[in-house]
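Exercise 7. Given the components listed, write out the predicted structure of the assembled complex. Treat all entries as one system.
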Amino acid sequence: MRIQRFALTAVLSYRALFTWLNPSGYIATRIVAPIALTLVFGTVQIASSSDTTRAVIGGSLLAVVVSAVYGVTLGVANERTFGTLTIRATTPSGIQGDLIAKAVPHVLDGYLAGALTIAVAAAALDVQLDSRTIGAIVVAAGAASLSGAGLALLVASVSLWSRDTYTAPNVAEIVVALTSGVFVDPAQLPWGLGQVATLIPAAGAVEVGMQAATGGPLVWTPLLREIALAGVYGACGMFSVRLFARRAQREATHDLT
Amino acid sequence: MIGPHQLRAAARLQLRNQAVTPWAVLAGALAPAILTLLVAAQFGGTPPSLFVGAMLSAMVARLPDLAVVAVMQDRKWAVLPQLLTSPTRLGWIVAGRALGAGLEAMVGLPIVLGLLWLVGGPPSGTYAVMIIAMALGVLNLVVLTASMMAFVVPRRYRAGMMNAVFPVAVLMFGLYVPVEDLSSWVAVVSRFFGISWAVTAVRVAENGGSALWPLLLSALTTAGLALGVAFQLARLDSATRARSDVVLT
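Answer.
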């Protein structure tokens, strides 16, 4: 019964609260944008005589991670707009359980976006990926989706507190794109920015994908690190949600838009 | 002189629209700056063309959000139909909004410039070409934004529909990578845009060539586009007033 209610919450939340669930918005945001961004960095890598494999693998993993981040945050933003956040907060499941349910369809949606991105980008940039590499990327994407969901909870909590619901996911996407090595090897980044890569979602998953693409075995350390990051971000996110939800309730700011 | 007054009022309205959320403006300006940082890291340097391409990409990242979405929301919230019952011309609204958005999008330029400067030092030589190319590129972008706004005025707003503009435009205009390196049809299409010629001019100059022709072509394509947009807006003004579905959302 609990699972059924969880699934129902997830589906209803996706259908009612996903801002971009219209043909042009969905195609532009979840299909064209990640593919085009991957092609931008793929062409940059061609122009700088580098291997384009990182852009193809990283672009698809970035699509997986940011799907959950934007999906959950937009869900909170719309609850705020429709004035239902206060009611949500008083239900037995509370906002925390609700946010986890909100993340599930976007994680699945992110898989689809990632699959489309890797298929189109690999064809356009002429990157050959064998079945073993694809298998490793699927496993890596699974771990990335978990850490993405954890990050989504953390980012969505900011949207519980702030009226401006777009800045937090935008900043999160920027940080992931810059420091996780999805497009550029962290070692190439200036000012030692690459040092923080191990703490950023998608970094471990990219490492797994890149290792497999070069013919190496499945590397467990970055994979486990990615899963551990999911736990850490998830825990921080839950704590943060509780904190900001209480604050919003105390200050009656749930429904301010 | 009603026209210029309306233009100024529309530009001011556009600037005030975003004034309530300065963080959003800053985050919007930061995103292309960070992408540029990644591109610079990948190239291992900051050639003058990357300075110009990156600054123009910062404007591309903001303009559709600021101006085009504003017009679509004006339609959604029935502001546009109300404005069109007054003598205000659609052309002045669109031009004013595009101008205001252009000014606002410039917030990102110092951030991009500063980041690139910090990474690779000041751009070498070709300053005159860079400045002219930048001015032509910005002008072309403002006109292009007005054209996009004219395109969306009779259409319904769908959330998220403009989200792919930035990466597609960066590719199509050759802002980071020369369009010749992309597929042949992309190279042909991009030649219709003055912004693409502006960046090409800087690339030609940094390779020791003469940037005169690309700059002239940039100016010419921008003038042609501006003429087309003026015509499109004049036609749309009467057509939109006659249409009853402009209030549909």
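Discussion: Chain B touches chain A through 37 residues (CB under 8 Å). The longest helix of chain B spans residues 212-242.
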